Model the fold of this input.
Amino acid sequence: MSTHLRTLLLLPVFAGAMLLHGADASEAKTPKPPMLPVVNEIDLKMPIQHARATGVTIQGKHFLLVRHANSPRVDPAPDHFVYPTDSYKLSLLDLNSNKVLWTKDLGWGIIAGDWFCPVLSFDIDDDGEDEIFYIDNELPKKPLSFRRSLVGLRAGDGKEFMRFQVKVEKDYRFILMGGKDKKGEPVLIMQNGTYRDMNFFAYDRKGKMIWRRLIPQDGTPRASHCTSVYDYNGDGSDEILWGERLISIDNGKDLFLGNEDAWNGHSDIVMPYFDRNYKFSGVWTCRESRPTKDHPEQFRCNNYDPKLRIRWGALKEGHIDRGGIFRINAEGDKVFWAQEMRADPVTLKRSFMPTLFFGEDGKPLDLPLKRRFAPRGIDVNGDGIHEIICDRTIYDLKGNALYRVPVQDKWMIVGHLRDDLPGEQYVMHSADGKIRVLADPNAKWSESAKKRYAHPYYDRCLHRSAVGYNFAYDLGGL
Ligand SMILES: [Ca+2]
Ligand SMILES: [Ca+2]
Ligand SMILES: [Ca+2]
Ligand SMILES: [Ca+2]
Done:
């Protein structure tokens, strides 16, 4: 990062500190910004307690698939498990006509939670039209059964066109991924297991298994809650970024293992990032599990180069539960952030430490933002620079509050989802079942943002945001 840029980012902090004696500068500058306007509202006509959304492409047009339930989000971990109160529904929305095209109830065999039911939008037959994949339970009255099937639906009408049994291994954590191999053929991957054994099953367009791999607990890194598939090294076939390792989609073999001799744990955040020329430039990781006893010197956050060699690290202690990357200028330079979570050992009540920011060189930066909650990036005005959503407010990087977002509604997806509008939109749902798209009326088209939306990685991110926790931070690295 240039000295100029660092000065630019640091200046408002010092200015704010002088004026307000350490109080938050952003609060005093613009006490009550306007609400970010709603540009779409689609009523699903049923209550929603939690939902995720993913982009779907049909005949060149973009749609939004929502997976929703009037149930708390159920986690498979015994300390976090709660009773589901509803089954999942899938609804395909047309944001242009404000219509629900179809809704399908997945039934009580599938427990309503991100890990029980990833939903992937993926063009399995390469005809330019997405198909929808999820993992069904063959014994719907027995929700904990391991007799599972991978199911494909046609996006246009929600009708099932593919179903085959898959082998699962006593773990309710599922991931679905899609990519292309060296022949350009689509590969669909079902994965089972995060913290212990990790099983991968790769299928071709007909549902025939083309490889499988078990990664036992062999002292190598475990999975992350974010996964991504892309041709990172530019050799024509995709790689899977799986925890702190890169796996070939051609055969399931490791290409690179990060911090191989000293890391065998689970990393909450694993995010690839790209340089000014949109070339894969590295990976930002934030770790959950404790370091191995033999390696207390290891960092909790690591910035890797494209071959997963550590460039620099930060923090020696803590469960770094949240993290991400922002674009700080129209050229696409980046800032990295991390946030430690602490949980009471008895009540498990969570609290979050202040967000820490780092420049591309690893030096700490101070951004003038309120920092109680995880900041999330959105280029709401379309200039190719991230604004930051935190504390239900959208700030620019200087700490000016631009917009408020509704307190009562819940985040689903951020991205350039409306082809006709500049900038990135913010999609939320209300408890009474309304899906709302919010957009900046002053947004303008810019070359920087157009280039970003046109990048194939951007589209990949929008298609995997209903898998695991990809929804939260995925687009920051681009
Ligand atoms: Ca297709
Ligand atoms: Ca590749
Ligand atoms: Ca965690
Ligand atoms: Ca912006």
Notes: The mean pLDDT is 91.
